[in-house]
Amino acid sequence: MKGPRPALQHNRYEIQPLRSGARSTHWTSSNPVLGTLRGRFVLAGDSILSFYSSPTGRYHGFECLLQKDDKRYSVRGAMMEEDKVISSWALAQ
């Protein structure tokens, strides 16, 4: 189902490099609307799973990036404000 194009969002990520043999790492992002988000990337086969929350826990969500080939991913995710879904997305290149 396609709808109107959502507003453009920008995030600045700082990602801790993966340690040798590690399957996950932490990240933080700065969003002009939501503020700071802290999360974790987890490698799971051909996917990258991402879980995150704001410092107060008011905002939290998840995202799954599925690798289609060497240059393409499809993405699915959702964000909640407390227990209310405020955004969900499905993107493919």
- Which outline best applies? globular
The helix/strand order is EEEEEEE
What percentage of residues falls in helices of 4 or more residues?
under 10%
Strand sequence of the main sheet, in spatial order?
1-2-3-4-5-6-7
General description of the model:
There is one protein chain. The chain has 93 residues and is an all-beta fold. The chain contains no helices and seven strands. It has a seven-stranded antiparallel sheet, with no helix packed on it. A hairpin with a 3-residue loop joins strand 2 and strand 3. The two termini are 16 Å apart.
What attributes characterize this protein structure?
mainly beta; 7 strands; 0% helix; globular
Topology of helices and strands:
Elements: E1 12-15, E2 24-31, E3 35-44, E4 47-53, E5 59-67, E6 73-81, E7 84-92
Antiparallel strand pairs: 1-2, 2-3, 3-4, 4-5, 5-6, 6-7
Short recap of the structure:
By secondary structure, the protein is mainly β.
